[in-house]
Amino acid sequence: MMLLTPDLRYGLRANAILGEVAREKGLPFDPRPLVKFFSPVGAATWLATELDRDGDTLFGLADLGFGSPELGSFSLREISAVRLSFGLGIERDLTFTTIHPLSDWVTWSRRCGSILWAETLSRRAAQMITLDPDIGPDPDIPK
User: Fold this and answer.
1) What's the pLDDT at 143?
2) Considering the entire predicted model, what is its pTM?
3) Which segments of 18-56 are extended strands (E)?
4) Facing residues of 100 across strands?
């Protein structure tokens, strides 16, 4: 499986450039993760928001399944080179999308102990809002 399509590369590079500009201007920058990688036989999960000029170094949230997701950089080549049981490798979640910025994922994942649990709870919350029209955004929180 191709871990990064040309469109994903473009989006990740665009985020990296926007992040550099924001840092230079002292502005906040909190992009949404654009891609999720995972181990099909374990709990390892990565969410990436940016791709460096080298075309290999990704930035985002990494969770190797030990209960302490970490924010930082990781190598696309290293993830691609991982060989798991039954000849499997790391895969890209083809259905992953999110409306939440990386900072939310970091907070939720650290509280839950994993990206997978944070994703599960996020889906459940979204389903509850969909199923019960009385549950909705808090009107006291400004948009």
Assistant:
1) 46
2) 0.86
3) 35-38, 45-51
4) none
